[in-house]
Amino acid sequence: MTYIVFGFFGILTLGGGILVVTSRNLVRAAASLVLSLFGVAGLYVLLEAGFLAAAQILIYIGAIAILIIFAVMLTQRVAAENRAATNSQWPWALLVSALTFALLVYIINIVWPLGIRAANVPVLAADPTKGLGMALVDWGQYVLPFEVASILLLGAMVGSIFVAREHHDD
What would the CATH number be for the domain defined by 1-85? Predict the structure, then answer.
């Protein structure tokens, strides 16, 4: 029975993710993101990580995804479905993406010692919330990926603000 539930949540997560990246309508893509995030929450429940499942539902589905849906629906770009999907700056975006990927690979394989990843995996059995919190702030465990993810999210937010703002010729 567990395999069937896992398969359901896996298909829900992957199917929602595929719909996010293939949908040409922004509202449908945002709704598909909610579907995919719900599948991830279900996978957390199967892993007996109740705190992560609740955080996934409250933070990602309840706040961020709904914020994205409202932002998409309140912008003027929803009506402009006939626009081209690419812009003239795609080569620069490809270059920056490739450089960011190369930097991440360098950090993970060279700067961050290989022994840290395998040797100091936190044991979350006694108190999962405390163990997760300690793992995210301990230099010997996951503080570097946590900080890199926060910097990437900040860069994505600044980039989306830059792309979404109206261009004035004054």
Answer: 1.20.120.1200
**Segments in 47-142 forming alpha helices (H):** 50-55, 66-74, 90-106, 114-119, 128-137
Q: What is the pLDDT of residues 110-129, one digit of tens each?
A: 766 555 544 455 554 566 67
**Two structure tokens written together for 97:** 């993406």
38-58 tens-digit pLDDT: 999 999 999 888 888 888 888
Domain boundaries, the chain: 1-85, 87-170
The Cα 65–Cα 27 span in angstroms is 11
Summarised one tens digit per residue, pLDDT across range 67-78 is 777 777 666 554
Helix residue spans in the chain (DSSP H): 2-22, 26-46, 50-55, 66-74, 90-106, 114-119, 128-137, 143-164
pLDDT at 166 over 80: no
Long-range contacts of 23-28 (CB under 8 A, 24+ apart): 24/81, 24/85, 25/81, 26/72, 26/77, 26/78, 27/69, 27/72, 27/73, 27/78
